[in-house]
Amino acid sequence: MTALSIRHILFPYDFSEQGRQVVPFVSAFAKRFDARLTLFSVVPPAFDAVPAAMGGAALRAGDVSADWRRSLQCQLDRALVGEFGDVTVERVADCGDAALRIAAFAHDRDVDLVMMPTHGLGMFRRVLAGSVTSKVLHDVKCPVWTAAHAERQHAPAIPGTVLCAVDATTEGVPLLQYAALFSKRVGATLKVLHVVEPMSDWPSLARERALQEEARDTASQAVASMLESAGVEATSKVVVGEIVARAVETAREEHADLMIVGRGAIAEPFGRIRTHTFGIIEQSPCPVLSV
């Protein structure tokens, strides 16, 4: 079975309200998994030259970046001290393209989980803009936890119900195993979802309904086989409809506190959920852990 190891959590932080709302989740995960935490922020790259305030000289871009980086490091050293009082924290200020620096740090420092909001609204807004989050999701190799794309977070910090949306392919087996291990570790109930896309624009016709039901039955058998191969016991549901809409709707119906999905496209029958990961993250009523 796939191993679950969360020993190092990376929290990109931009001092925004959205970032602060993620803090309880980060703290709870670090404590539950006994993981060390890196609080990470990035200064955008400076211009090639910045006129000096006096004397008509020009400051080198490296000098400007270094000044901003030192200032940011001072802010990080003072940030969230009480909130992370029971967690081993390293605070790192960096300079450059935010998505690239986050991905590089995650790779170079053996990060097991990145936790971040889907967008930032603070003084370092460009650090965690939606496009940056998308790049991080695309570039990093480890799982990424993203907050609900909403003004306020309502899910509990440690989920009680986990909904794993899977493709009914062999690629779904390790995802199911990861979801089962994660759910067991946090004490959550695991539920499994697969969405079958509509086969016809004419569902009222008997022949089209029969074909759709046949596709649903085939997918249900594939999901059952996948659960058996994964060695996972969980209730499963196979629904028909547009993937993102039905996944989001089911998360609400099941009162999910967290969705677990895979990242990356799969060119196989019943392998479409992963191609809709960004849409699910954007519309999910709860945080999403993409693996």
Protein architecture, described:
With 291 residues, this protein is of the alpha/beta class. The protein has two domains: 8-146, HUPs (Rossmann fold, 3-Layer(aba) Sandwich), CATH 3.40.50; 161-290, HUPs (Rossmann fold, 3-Layer(aba) Sandwich), CATH 3.40.50. Helices cover 39% and strands 20% of the residues. It contains eight helices and twelve strands. Strands 5-2-1-6-7-12-11-8-9-10 form a ten-stranded mixed sheet, sandwiched between helices. A two-stranded antiparallel sheet has the order 3-4. Helix 5 links the parallel strand 8 and strand 9. Helix 3 runs parallel beside helix 4 (130-139), helix 5 crosses helix 6 (206-230) and helix 7 crosses helix 8 (277-283). The radius of gyration is 22 Å and the shape is elongated. The two termini are 15 Å apart. Mean pLDDT is 84; it is low at 47-59, 121-129 and 265-273.
Topology:
Layout: E1 8-12, H1 17-32, E2 36-43, E3 49-51, E4 58-60, H2 61-78, E5 89-95, H3 98-108, E6 113-116, H4 130-139, E7 144-146, E8 161-165, H5 172-186, E9 189-196, H6 206-230, E10 235-240, H7 243-253, E11 258-261, H8 277-283, E12 288-290
Parallel strand pairs: 1-2, 1-6, 2-5, 6-7, 8-9, 8-11, 9-10, 11-12
Antiparallel strand pairs: 3-4, 7-12
